[in-house]
């Protein structure tokens, strides 16, 4: 039984405004046990009611228990509820609903109930046996979906004003209209009776539309353009024979019904059917309805011909068998896109077996983007394809890009197709059929200069989006936001970040609106971050800027009230309510108000250069109760680029092996350096960057060069295992699921997707541009297992035996090699675990063992028996 390592109690933080902070501590203390993590309080989900009057947030204490707080921002009235989930405000901000445990012991697990609260007076309504819930858009009804009973459910409709409930049983599907006034649903009939489709007026429960049929109904969808559904056609035996598409408009008024049935069209292709796998969708104007057709499903090989359960892996397969298995349901549900004009009573097939992969539909439905990779199969590297534009009116296909690895998208209104090519943003004018280089005048460079992957074409820095009516396109360079008008090519630099090395990006999700409601995220080269208010005249104003990690806003519907969540690396996330300019701050949460006697020091940005002269950064985190003049051990945590976490607050966790705070609380420095790569030299690049980073840090006198540890997971674990083959810099190393033999790894399968690892190696993270037989020296030189003879550092590896990303045989190769060499190596394997150890006891076990391991080698504590002698299998089984 390993001794669980020690950590501290929660700390005390006093916030003086947002601009300034002081940390108040009471004396000096020692570290505590893992179980005291339950005293740390964590801010979870939070939100603001649409009116901005009410705020809600959840606080978690420890690993499990949490409390929902609901507070009136003006009056201060507050409600508290234990162990809640999925809280939701009504649109009129008068109600909140959530799920909570019933408190009853249920053999199958925890039983939940739904609680509805009237925010004005706190009156509660309880509903049981509910699986999900939502308010209608008009806030007059709460729809409660009961638990599944076979393939049907019970729906409970609670009238919020009249406080009455209506129950409807045997519902298969349902949908609410955009106004919240009507509910459409299908009823599953008992054997021998007809199925029903009903429309209910929610105000008085009056039936407005009723259809009975022996056939079933599915794909109910209610939009601004009417109620849409499919009717499932069956023969006399009940076997499904096809589908019809139905549209019902003007329900409650002069009702109109349109139907698309395959047999009604002479030009509907033989041996095809309307597909159940594609949910029909409208164009923005409601004039075109897109749907899918598919071949009639054929039967497999005759069982008389199949004598064994065998897969045939053929060298001519366009996709290997494992990939085909992974994509089985996707491939069998393939559909060919079609368009229907209900009012004009015509339709057109747009896609077929020669061009079936649809990448997008323009907002007006006038054009469709399609991609075809069939001429370039099989794929071993990046996906090459042709990109086509299909005109829905005529079916005309125009090849936009040939043999490209690029992606293309429609502009907001659908007037253009845009893509990044040859280091510029391009647009294709769909009306004029012209190509436009939108960014030829930009001189700062739009390709991501930090891209260090193997593909020759670097991606862009990204886009903010298109303005209304496609008048302008907003895009990014390294620091700034730019605007270009495609019609005139008028170019404007909207921000001035380059001068101060501050990167500006769009903060909010959603539609791009260039007014004062637009907020910008700002990130400094020094790790600072903040929020600016956009000004159309260019006078963008900083609302908040500093050494923040978490910065998240929730806004009221009118954007005049905000909930602001923020943190830095020594201050746990706290929640504030503020006005539109983030002023008049009112602190809502005080998550860590227990004096603990532990002093935390702000993290520090370390700058260094690799041997190629590239400027890099690393994040250095100080040990708790740091004292100048003392010398401390340091753990170096690596992956690729990690310096962006400089100001992040990390909650300690007994189940997180790679948790920065865990080690800080144990008295370790933690260093997270950035790594940049040369193609075909991934391991050597890691050695170059990490050793340069550590040398820079060791210029300090408070880090003991004889007590350095190295840790990483997956790709970070590969680099950990490789680095110790090239340098004796580290006294101990921990690698979770490392790649160790780059040749055998190249020739294996990434079972999570079914793909061959060849693609990952030649186009992705491994960064080998060529197959191993063409550059075998580089594969061998960058494989830890082939360099293991040079290792002078004890290595601890961790694997799950069901790892679908890096097979645990990679760990075995390294373990068996080091064992034969007589070098200290321990391999921990967790039965049934995957790429990340997830079982509760297993995560606790690995965290404790790794802490034991580092403490022994870096602090010279007494070693646990398993470190010195291992454990026999008989002892594991309790027989020794």
From TrEMBL:
<dbReference type="Pfam" id="PF00326">
    <property type="entry name" value="Peptidase_S9"/>
</dbReference>
<dbReference type="InterPro" id="IPR001375">
    <property type="entry name" value="Peptidase_S9_cat"/>
</dbReference>
<dbReference type="GO" id="GO:0006508">
    <property type="term" value="P:proteolysis"/>
</dbReference>
<dbReference type="InterPro" id="IPR050278">
    <property type="entry name" value="Serine_Prot_S9B/DPPIV"/>
</dbReference>
<protein>
    <submittedName>
        <fullName>S9 family peptidase</fullName>
    </submittedName>
</protein>
<dbReference type="InterPro" id="IPR029058">
    <property type="entry name" value="AB_hydrolase_fold"/>
</dbReference>
<dbReference type="GO" id="GO:0008236">
    <property type="term" value="F:serine-type peptidase activity"/>
</dbReference>
<dbReference type="GO" id="GO:0008239">
    <property type="term" value="F:dipeptidyl-peptidase activity"/>
</dbReference>
<feature type="domain" description="Peptidase S9 prolyl oligopeptidase catalytic">
    <location>
        <begin position="684"/>
        <end position="860"/>
    </location>
</feature>
<dbReference type="InterPro" id="IPR011042">
    <property type="entry name" value="6-blade_b-propeller_TolB-like"/>
</dbReference>
């Amino acid at each position: 039984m390993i001794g669980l390592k020690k950590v501290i109690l929660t700390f005390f933080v006093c916030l003086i405004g947002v601009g300034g902070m002081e940390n108040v501590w009471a004396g000096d203390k020692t570290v505590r046990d893992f179980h005291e993590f339950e005293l740390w309080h964590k801010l979870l989900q939070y939100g603001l009611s649409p009116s901005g009057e009410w705020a809600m947030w959840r606080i978690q204490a420890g690993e499990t228990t949490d409390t929902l707080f609901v507070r009136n921002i003006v009056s201060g009235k507050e409600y508290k509820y234990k162990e809640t989930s999925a809280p939701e405000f009504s649109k009129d901000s008068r109600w909140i609903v959530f799920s909570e445990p019933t408190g009853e012991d249920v053999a199958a697990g925890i039983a939940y109930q739904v609680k509805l609260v009237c925010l004005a007076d706190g009156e509660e309504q309880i509903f049981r046996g509910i699986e999900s819930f939502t308010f209608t858009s008009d806030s007059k009804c709460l729809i409660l979906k009961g638990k599944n009973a076979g393939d049907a459910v019970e729906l409970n409709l609670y009238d919020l004003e009249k406080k009455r409930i209506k129950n409807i049983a045997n519902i298969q599907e349902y949908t609410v209209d955009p106004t919240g006034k009507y509910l459409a649903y299908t009823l599953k009939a008992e054997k021998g009776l007809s199925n029903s489709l009903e429309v209910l007026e929610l105000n008085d429960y009056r039936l407005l539309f009723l259809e009975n049929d022996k056939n079933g109904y599915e794909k109910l969808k209610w939009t601004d353009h009417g109620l849409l559904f499919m009717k499932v056609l069956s023969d006399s035996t009940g076997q499904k024979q096809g589908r019809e598409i139905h549209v019902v408009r003007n329900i409650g008024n002069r009702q109109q019904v349109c139907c698309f049935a395959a047999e009604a069209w002479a030009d509907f292709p033989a041996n095809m059917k309307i597909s159940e796998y594609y949910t029909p969708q409208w164009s923005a104007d409601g004039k075109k309805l897109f749907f899918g057709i598919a071949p009639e499903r054929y039967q497999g090989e005759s069982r008389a011909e199949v004598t064994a359960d065998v897969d045939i892996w053929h060298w001519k397969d366009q996709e290997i068998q494992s990939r085909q298995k992974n994509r089985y349901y996707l491939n069998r549900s393939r559909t060919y896109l079609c368009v229907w004009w209900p009012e004009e009573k015509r339709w057109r097939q747009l896609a077929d077996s020669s061009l079936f992969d649809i990448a997008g539909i323009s907002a007006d439905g006038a054009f469709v983007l399609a991609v075809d990779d069939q001429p370039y199969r099989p794929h071993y590297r990046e996906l090459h394809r042709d990109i086509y534009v299909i005109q829905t009116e005529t079916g005309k296909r125009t090849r936009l890009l040939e043999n490209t690895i690029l992606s293309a998208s429609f502009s907001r209104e659908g007037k253009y197709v845009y893509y990044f090519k040859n280091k510029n943003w391009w647009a294709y004018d769909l009306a004029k059929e012209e190509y436009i280089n939108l960014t030829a005048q930009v001189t700062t460079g739009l390709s991501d200069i930090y891209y260090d992957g193997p593909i020759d074409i670097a991606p862009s820095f990204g886009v903010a989006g298109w303005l209304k009516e496609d008048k302008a396109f907003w895009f990014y360079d390294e620091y700034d936001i730019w605007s270009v008008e495609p019609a005139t090519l008028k170019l404007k630099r909207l921000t001035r970040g380059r001068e101060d090395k501050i990167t500006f990006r769009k903060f909010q999700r959603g539609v791009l609106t260039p007014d004062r409601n637009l907020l910008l995220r700002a990130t400094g080269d020094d790790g600072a971050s903040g929020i600016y208010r956009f000004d159309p005249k260019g006078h963008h104003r900083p609302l908040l800027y500093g050494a923040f990690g978490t910065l998240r806003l929730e806004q009221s519907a009118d954007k005049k009230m905000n909930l602001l969540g923020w943190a830095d690396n020594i201050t746990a996330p706290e929640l504030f309510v503020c006005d539109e300019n983030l002023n008049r701050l009112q602190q809502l949460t005080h998550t860590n108000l227990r004096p603990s006697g532990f002093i935390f020091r702000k993290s520090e940005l370390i700058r260094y250069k690799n041997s190629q002269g590239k400027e890099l950064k690393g994040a250095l985190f100080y040990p708790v109760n740091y004292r100048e003049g003392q010398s401390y051990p340091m753990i170096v945590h690596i992956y690729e680029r990690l310096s962006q976490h400089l100001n992040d607050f990390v909650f300690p966790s007994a189940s997180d092996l790679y948790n920065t705070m865990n080690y800080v609380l144990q008295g370790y420095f933690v260093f997270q350096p950035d790594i940049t790569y040369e193609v075909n030299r991934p391991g050597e690049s890691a050695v170059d960057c990490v050793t340069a980073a550590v040398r820079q840090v060791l210029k300090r006198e408070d880090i003991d060069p004889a007590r350095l540890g190295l840790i990483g997971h997956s790709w970070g674990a590969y680099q950990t295992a490789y680095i110790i083959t090239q340098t004796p810099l580290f006294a101990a190393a921990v690698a979770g699921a490392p790649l160790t033999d780059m040749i055998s790894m190249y020739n294996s399968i990434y079972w999570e997707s079914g793909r061959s690892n060849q693609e990952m190696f030649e186009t992705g993270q491994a960064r080998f541009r060529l197959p191993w037989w063409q550059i075998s020296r580089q594969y061998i030189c960058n494989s830890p297992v082939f360099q293991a003879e040079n290792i002078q550092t004890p290595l601890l590896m961790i694997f799950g035996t069901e790892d679908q990303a890096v097979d645990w045989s990679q760990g075995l190769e390294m373990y068996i090699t080091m064992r034969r060499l007589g070098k200290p190596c321990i391999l921990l394997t967790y039965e049934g675990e995957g790429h990340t150890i997830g079982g509760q006891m297993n995560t606790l076990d690995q965290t404790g063992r790794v802490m034991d391991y580092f403490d022994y080698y870096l602090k010279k504590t007494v070693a646990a028996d398993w470190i010195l002698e291992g454990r026999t299998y008989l002892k594991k089984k309790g027989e020794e």
